[in-house]
Structure formats: C-alpha cells, structure tokens
Amino acid sequence: MNPRRKLLAIPVIALSALTAAACSSSSSSSSSSAAAASTASAAASAPASASASASSSVNLSSVTLNVGDQKGTGAEAILKAAGLLSSLPFHVSWSDFTSGPPMLEAMASGSVDVGGVGDAPPVFAAAGGEAVEIVGAREVPGGDQDALVVPKGSSITSLAQLKGKKIAYGSGSSGNYNLLTVLAKGGLTTKDVTMVNLQPAEALAAFTSGSVDAWDIWPPYVQQVVAQDGAKVLAVGPQYGSPYSYEVASKSAVANPEKAAAIQVYLTTLDKAYVWASAHADAWGAAWSAAAGLPASITDVAAKVDSTTPVVVNSAISASEQDLVTQFYKAGLIPTNVNMTGYITSQFNSSVTGG
Fold first, then answer.
1. Which DSSP state fits 128?
2. Element (H or E) spanning 325, and its range?
3. Is the pTM of this model over 0.85?
4. 119 with 172: CB under 8 angstroms?
5. Are 19 and 199 in contact, with CB atoms under 8 Å apart?
C-alpha cells in the first residue's frame, strides 16, 4: 500500500464508523423521580411563558421525545459532558444523522420530534413544504465557521481560481449556503463550478483521494483535514455563510401539549449545556473527542472556534433565514421563494438562559 494512502485510511475509517451509526437509536431517561421533579421545578422557575407554564403542568415522565442528532452538533454528547443528560425528566429516543437535511426529512415523516441543524436545512425543508419549524437558535459570535478547504499542495490560492473546479458539499446543508457565499465573493456562481453532492464521510474520502478540488464543510471536519491531511483553508469567517444554527421541531410535535412541554425543557437544558461548553471549551473538546472518535487535538480546536451562544428567535433570525431563501431561489437551488414566517416560532424563547 502506498504510504500516503495508508495514512489517509485512518481518518476515513474513523468517520465511516461514525456514519455507520446513522439512524441508530439509544435511550435515556430520568435516573429517578426526584431528578424529574427537580428539573420540572427548574423549568417552572424559568422566565414566564405559555410554553414554560405548560411544561410544569404536564407529567413529563410519561413522554418520549424523539431527538435527532448529528456528530457536528453533538447534542447528546454535549448534554452528557455538561452533566445534564440524566436530568431530562422524560424518555429520550436518540437518532443519529450524517447532516441536517436527512434529519429534517425524518422529522417531516414523523419519526423525529426535534433536532439541531445548520442555517440552510430549514430553508430547504420549508421550500419543500415539510411541516417543520425553527424553535431555537444559537449564534457563533465570531461568524460562520463552515469553511472551503483545498488539499495540500493545491494550486488554488484565490476564490476566482475555483472556476471549473469540482467542489464537494452537502445539498441543503450549511455548507451549501457557505459555498454559495464563497462563490459570490469570488465573482462566481454555481454554474461556474461542478458541485458534487456528498455526505461528510463520502466527501472526506473524495477530498483525500483527489477526486474533488475543494470541499465546503463544518467543524470538526475542517480541523480534521487541516491537522491530518495538511489541507488549506481558503475561505472562512463572518463574511461567508450565516452565524446561526437552529433547533427545529416538527409542527405536529409543537402542536402536541405533552411533546411541546418536553421540547421546552429539552431546549432549556440544551441551552445550558451550550453555555457550559463555551465556558469550558477544553472539557467539551475532550468529551467531543471521545464521542466522535477523533483526536483531542482536533476537537479541542473545533470546540474553541465553533463555540455558540443561545439566542432568542426574533426578527433578526427571520430576516437571516429569509435572506437565505432569496439567495437559494435566485441560484435555482430551491423550487419556491418561500415565506419563512410560517416555519419559525418564538414560543420557546424562555429556554434561552437569561431570555
């Protein structure tokens, strides 16, 4: 075996193992009725709202919340790392997905109630008429951390040089929107390049084998290919993509009083976990390493650069998502110029710490 190919096989195998877990499920429940009562009491003491009041009046111990997860967001891992996973006063059925779009498809079919995604998946779901809505939001203070990377030794040193090149991305993912903005900054459109739609593990294999010339992807994959393969980051930062990621729920779950009450407590607990992670990046990086099967040197960097802050769902969120709609529609990547108003709700805003 070629020594370089042997070296590259290590990260490919690692990520393939992660992807093999897609759509698998595990469960967690409260460790005792006392823990359930404690969490319900904490939720009830949060800033007043209709949904918060509802959560305190529902017997959450009889509720099962189906939560979608992905290795890029790591909701289960971050809750566990923050010591909050066992405090959830209801049963949780976890399902892992390789990216946001397939998660929202499962959500629309009724098999997932709530889950975390990037900025673009809600737009594609709404444009497709899927019955989902944004119920929570987080912001990356330093701007979008998705990045356009090129292989070690690539002759590409400017965005304009992407013309005619093959670029890996995930259709409908945050990388899709990041790539759209990267091309625009380089004076290009999607018609000037060959866009290769691949899920992360397949894109990694294509990138490291030289089958594509560039890859638009999110942490910790960005940090992985830089550290393990010598990739170069061509474009990253606040001038690309958008700084938001979201928690999305099925409209049927939001309309169900028991599910909505569980979502309220879940979001409140998850927001606390993300606040903890931002304040304890080293501890979260170590936990993320164990959960993802990646070296701590990679997840430590990813944890620091991709730190997020829970924010309320407001007009800024609506405007940001509507701007994505406009750009995707103009690029011919979605079929309708959908109004995102019907796919966003602020009813769970009391989940935000200090909100």
1. T
2. helix 315-330
3. no
4. no
5. yes
